[in-house]
Amino acid sequence: MTTLIGVPGSHPSLAAELMLRHKGIPYRRFDLPNGANRFILPLLGFDVRTVPVLRLDGRRVTTTRRIARALEAGQPDPPLFPDDSRAVEAAESWADDELQEGVRRLARWATGKDPQSMATFLDGVHMGLPEGVVRASLPVVGPFVKAQLKTADAAAENAARGLPEQLDRVDELLADGVIGGAQPNAADYQVATSVRLAMCFDQLRERIAARPAGAHALRICPDYPGRFRAVLPEPWIAKM
Questions:
Q1: What is the per-residue pLDDT across 91-128, written as a single tens digit (0 to 9) for each?
Q2: Distance CA 230, CA 233 (A)
Q3: Which CATH topology does 86-237 take?
Q4: Mean pLDDT, rounded, for 130-146
Q5: How far apart are CA 170 and CA 164, in angstroms?
């Protein structure tokens, strides 16, 4: 059985999971505690400390982009890349490097400001324990998670102020037909999951949903557990 390893609330892990579903490949998912992945993955034989990682046909595959290509090589249909994939690959790379990282920084910062948010990302968690047990452990593991995800205010502010421009680019990719087609591609999954994580913020959800980027994210990724309450300073998101 193909095994996907992620962490709760991880947008790259969800992108990999959606690509597995797109391919119709049976899989099981296992989640590590947030922050513990950097210590546990090397013990499992992976040469990275970040999720997602995949055990596929006896191989260890790391990073979302490599997972997309491994899935494509093993099962070409339905495709994740069109015949001329240059535009899709460029969008995928941008989303993986820039869009994904900016939203990640914002979410990590918000976790420290809204500790109650941790529990909201545990819906459907796959840790080999009942959800109730995992939730009951939060008073113990929560401080560890918060320490591992700590993000400077300046980094979070830069991420928030840069988000409107990134969403503009998503809207452009949709207008150009690079993403948003009838058949989702690898860039669709990279982009949509990051936008959906941004929509977990109470202050951003409706603003993003009003954009083409938001409608696309909801179509590709309708279910994304998690909620951040109103923790973002208004000046950071004034231009959203």
A1: 999 999 999 999 999 999 999 999 899 999 988 778 77
A2: 8
A3: Glutathione S-transferase Yfyf (Class Pi); Chain A, domain 2 (1.20.1050)
A4: 71
A5: 10
Which residue bears the tokens 């109730």? 132
Is domain 2-74 in CATH 3.40.30.10, yes or no? yes
The b/e string for 119-156 (b: 16+ C-beta within 10 A; e otherwise) is bbbbeebbbeeeeeebeeeeeeebeebbebbebeeeeb
Centroid of chain to Cα 18: 11
Question: Residues near 67 by Cβ (< 8 Å), separated by ≥ 6?
Answer: 16, 19, 52, 54, 56, 61
Q: Which of 18, 6, 7 is nearest to 144 (CA)?
A: 7
Angle at 149 between CA 209 and CA 120, to 5 degrees: 50
Q: How many CA atoms lie within 13 A of 196 on its CB side?
A: 25
> 2-74 and 86-237 share one CATH topology?
no
Are residues 206 and 200 in contact, defined by beta-carbon separation less than 8 angstroms? Answer: no
pLDDT tens digits, 158-172: 999 999 999 999 999
Q: Residue 38, Cβ neighbours under 10 Å: how many? A: 13
Cα separation of 220 and 119, whole Å? 24
- Listed by start position, the domains of the chain span 2-74, 86-237
